[in-house]
Specification:
The complex is a heterodimer of chains A (about 140) and B (about 300). With about 140 residues, chain A is α/β, with parallel strands linked by helices. Chain A has five helices and five strands. Chain A has a single domain, classed as Cobalamin-binding domain (Rossmann fold). Chain A is globular and about 35 Å long. The termini of chain A are close together. With about 300 residues, chain B is α/β, with parallel strands linked by helices. Chain B has one domain: P-loop containing nucleotide triphosphate hydrolases (Rossmann fold, 3-Layer(aba) Sandwich). A seven-stranded parallel beta sheet of chain B has the order 4-2-5-1-6-7-8, with helices on both faces. The longest helix of chain B is centred in the last third of the chain and has 29 residues. The radius of gyration of chain B is 21 Å and the shape is globular. Classes of the chains: A alpha/beta (about 140), B alpha/beta (about 300). At the A-B interface, α1, β2 and α2 of A face α1, β3 and β4 of B. β2 of chain A pairs parallel with β3 of chain B, so a sheet runs across the interface.
Chain lengths: ~140, ~300
């Protein structure tokens, strides 16, 4: 497979209503330092807004930070909407407070990686490099 | 109305086109040429507005406010937001969308964040090509927003039909410092954040400073967040861009050719640095083993003028 010649583009999104974006900002900055192009969209974006931004920015990865407990509804909806928009090759990952018991269902729905508290930036970067689409 | 495949298909095609021209080569050139042909066939005449100024002056917010006013009267509006790539990692943090409201179900809007990648301190090499693709996709008002620093201001002045310099209300020393640079090539200077103390004073200082020169830029006092003066500013922009005719598209191709040349040289310099050829040649020049003349041809493939 050919080596990538351009940086991996990642959209960092905060769907839902919680207003805590420190974790998302730390991740955005950290991934920049790992050589990713990070598009940060700000707080309280709807799923439709995140999908449209992901399409316009032609990102390889959408990373969602969710601390509100709304992951079980929002994340599967996001994956389904990306797929119906023709962006099924976009990797969707999530971070934040997501209970262990909810993970199998999310993975089933197409959330490729789930990163809990304590995950290092380097671990996220390694996962994204291994799993983002090639082009 | 939920977004769906049909709704986003056109924006997706444009977005992928911009990614494609970010990878230079014959395929990128073909896409640009197809876009130009389509724009000629469809008699497009997009207005490209450059926004530049110091970080924090409110460029993103002002571009968003202008886009809202233009969209309200049915114009199709795109924003290209350029931010620097890290020299260390090659990564970039592109945060302009935070200040731009999302309109996911509106095909008359398009926003794209662009990293400068290997463009050094210059405007992103892909910026001109992106405007060519955006015009072909039917957007008639295109804002290109970039931090005004060093060479970037020359790049944006070359690309834009109308160059808008955005100042914050604290303008004073910074304004003085920039007068010889950006303000010389500005068509319009907008003092933003008119709702903050000091904005009127900054506007007055600029007006007295700029009134002396011939071909002085238009001045505006606006508040992007409060929406004050935005319609008037858009009218000023349109007046400044009126009569560009086919010259706008020619200007974009000129800017792209210069960017392509810069990109090529930058790549050659990176290659010669990484391979050690640059150091080796410098050592040979110091030792008298190689002449200075002919060295940039040997290293970077740039032909030197015969009388050099």
């Amino acid at each position: 497979m050919a080596e990538r010649t351009t940086p991996i583009r990642v959209l960092i999104a905060k769907p839902g209503l919680d207003g805590h974006d420190r974790g998302a900002k730390v991740l955005a900055r950290g991934l920049r330092d790992e050589g990713f192009e990070v598009i940060y969209t700000g707080l309280r974006r709807t799923v439709d807004a995140i999908v449209a931004a992901a399409i316009e920015e032609d990102v390889d990865v959408v990373g969602c930070s969710i601390l509100s407990g709304a992951h079980a509804t929002l994340l599967p909806k996001l994956v389904a909407s990306l797929r119906s928009s023709g962006a099924s090759d976009v990797l969707v990952v999530a971070g934040g407070i997501i209970p262990e018991a909810d993970r199998p269902e999310l993975e089933q729905a197409g959330i490729s990686g789930i990163f809990g508290p304590g995950t290092t930036i380097a671990e996220v970067a390694t996962f994204l490099r291994a799993n983002a689409r090639r082009r | 109305m939920p977004v769906d495949a049909k709704h986003l298909a056109a924006r997706r095609e444009l977005a992928q086109g911009i990614s494609a021209v970010e990878r230079p080569g014959p395929a990128a050139n073909q896409r640009i040429q197809e876009a130009l042909a389509a724009s000629v066939a469809d008699a497009r005449n997009a207005l490209v507005v450059g926004l530049t100024g110091a970080p924090g002056a409110g460029k993103s917010s002002l571009a968003a406010a202008l886009a809202d006013v233009a969209r309200a009267v049915g114009r199709r509006v795109a924003i290209l937001a350029i931010d620097p790539s890290s020299h260390e990692s090659g990564g970039a943090l592109l945060g302009d969308r935070v200040r731009i409201d999302e309109h996911p179900d509106d095909d008359g809007r398009f926003t794209r964040s662009i990293a400068t990648r290997g463009s050094g301190r210059s405007l992103a090499h892909v910026a001109a090509a992106a405007t060519i693709l955006v015009e072909a996709a039917g957007f008639d008002l295109i804002f290109v927003e970039t931090v005004g620093a060093g060479q970037a201001e020359i790049g944006i002045a070359r690309l834009a039909d109308v160059l808008l310099v955005v100042e914050g209300p604290e303008g004073g020393d910074e304004v003085q410092a920039m007068k010889a640079g950006i303000l010389e090539v500005a068509d319009i200077v907008a003092v933003n954040k008119s709702d903050r103390p000091g904005a009127q004073a900054a506007f007055d200082r600029l007006r007295s400073g700029l009134a002396l020169g011939a071909g002085a830029p238009e001045l505006a006092l606006v508040s992007a967040t409060a929406g004050a003066g935005i319609s008037e500013l858009l009218a000023t922009i349109d007046a400044a861009g009126a009569g560009r005719g086919v010259r706008g598209r020619i200007r974009r191709v000129e800017a792209h050719l210069v960017a392509a040349a810069e990109s090529h040289v930058d790549a050659q310099v990176r290659e010669a640095t990484a391979s050690g050829a640059l150091t080796t040649r410098a050592e040979q020049i110091v030792a008298g083993a190689q002449p200075l003349t002919g060295s940039i041809t040997a290293l970077f493939g740039i032909s030197e003028s015969p009388d050099a």
